Amino acid sequence: MRQDNNMRLLITGGAGFIGCNFVRHVLEAHPGYEVVVLDKLTYAGRRENLTDILKEITFVHGDICNSDDVYDALKGCDTVVNFAAETHVDRSINDADAFVRTNVLGTHTLLEAARKLNLQKFVQIGTDEVYGSAESGSFIESDPLNPSSPYSASKAGADLMAHAYFATYGLPVSITRSSNNFGPYQYPEKLIPFFILRAMRDEKLPVYGSGLNVRDWLYVRDNCSAIDMVLHKGQPGEIYNIGAANELTNLNITKMILSHLKKTESLIEHVTDRLGHDFRYSINSSKIRALGWKPERSFESALQDTVDWYIKNEEWWCGLL
Ligand SMILES: NC(=O)c1ccc[n+]([C@@H]2O[C@H](COP(=O)([O-])OP(=O)(O)OC[C@H]3O[C@@H](n4cnc5c(N)ncnc54)[C@H](O)[C@@H]3O)[C@@H](O)[C@H]2O)c1
Questions:
Q1: Which residue has its alpha carbon closest to ligand 1 atom 26?
Q2: Comma-separated ranges of CATH 3.40.50.720 domains in the chain
Q3: Per-residue pLDDT averaged across 77-102, rounded?
């Protein structure tokens, strides 16, 4: 075990959207920490997401389902933060295979290695989608899981396996469940970057169904500071919801994006609804707020920064469409 308070962190999925923002957060907030990223570099994970900080980290190209890759990456590490996952609901509806493999089996492979190596902390990154649709009110951490999509069902499986490793073996696991994130480096299949890029090119914005489905939006850097809080102050065996109480309909968000880009609402096109589309996600985040966390950014200004980031970083996304 290390003699100082510095961690050597394994960040899985660190070449993806939230992971690469979290790597940046850790390097800025904890200069003494060593960071190892393990990432399979799927379509969503890109080495380019880490280009400016590659010299400051150790990058391992590998799969969390492969225990050789996991042990290789874990050499000398005391802590794991597991972001690695298949994450796009629509892809899970078309083919759930990779979702079950990475999200359930991959998480289990990591947990098993963490148990054998006696790691000090394991943070499992989960999602509010595991609670299912909220008719009214907001879910708290002890509410039952009721996932609707193959994606959210596989994430619920990962959460349950992570909790089982705490209950059975005493592995110090904490779980975060955040709402929808947005910000820089998000792959443009997800709603906000997809619509920003389409609107920039005067292409139609396909809104599912009525567009009245409600999501609670969280700026990615606020999620990173919350995960940092759970990493340092979260209790083993506990789950922490992370939300900023920015509930908006998909139609509202779409109109805000169009307004930021000074584009006409006639670009909106209603299309057939997503299968099993949850109507509303809503979580109560009092538990993590009681640890001292709160979101720093207002939704409006963070959305403006996100739109500006995509405008300025065409070389990042131009090959992806
Ligand atoms: N984006 C959101 O709004 C949101 C909200 C709540 C929770 N989450 C959770 O946060 C985590 C990160 O989400 P994201 O939006 O950054 O996803 P992302 O799709 O942008 O990135 C996922 C990363 O995982 C990597 N990966 C996939 N399979 C792997 C495997 N088998 N082995 C190693 N690496 C693998 C990919 O290459 C990619 O870098 C996920 O666990 C997701 O469920 C995301």
A1: 84
A2: 8-182+218-244
A3: 98
Q: Nearest CA to 64 among 170, 162, 160, 172?
A: 162
Superfamily grouping for domain 191-214+247-287+302-320: UDP-galactose 4-epimerase, domain 1 (3.90.25.10)
Query: Hey, CA dihedral for 92, 97, 100, 103, is it positive or negative?
Result: negative
What digits encode the pLDDT tens for the residues 150-170?
A: 999 999 999 999 999 999 999
Angle in degrees, 0-180, between the axes of helices 107-116 and 150-169, rounded to the nearest 10: 20
- Which residues' Cβ are closer than 6 Å to ligand 1? 12-13, 15-19, 38-42, 44-45, 63-65, 83-87, 102, 106, 125, 127, 155, 178, 180-181, 187
Active site residues: 128-129, 151
Is 0.85 topped by the overall pTM? yes
**Of 25, 38, 42, best ligand 1 pocket probe by most atoms within 8 Å of the beta carbon:** 42
Average confidence score pLDDT of the chain: 97
Mutate which of 83, 219, 242 for ligand 1? The one with the most ligand atoms within 8 Å of its CB, which is: 83
Q: Select the CATH number that applies to the domain covering 8-182+218-244 from these four: 3.40.50.510, 3.90.550.10, 3.40.50.1760, 3.40.50.720.
A: 3.40.50.720
Ramachandran sector of residue 76 (left: φ over 0; alpha: ψ -120 to 50; beta: rest): left
Residue 133 three-state SS = coil
Return the pLDDT at 266: 98
Nearest CA to ligand 1 atom 13: 18
Å from CA of 87 to ligand 1 middle: 5
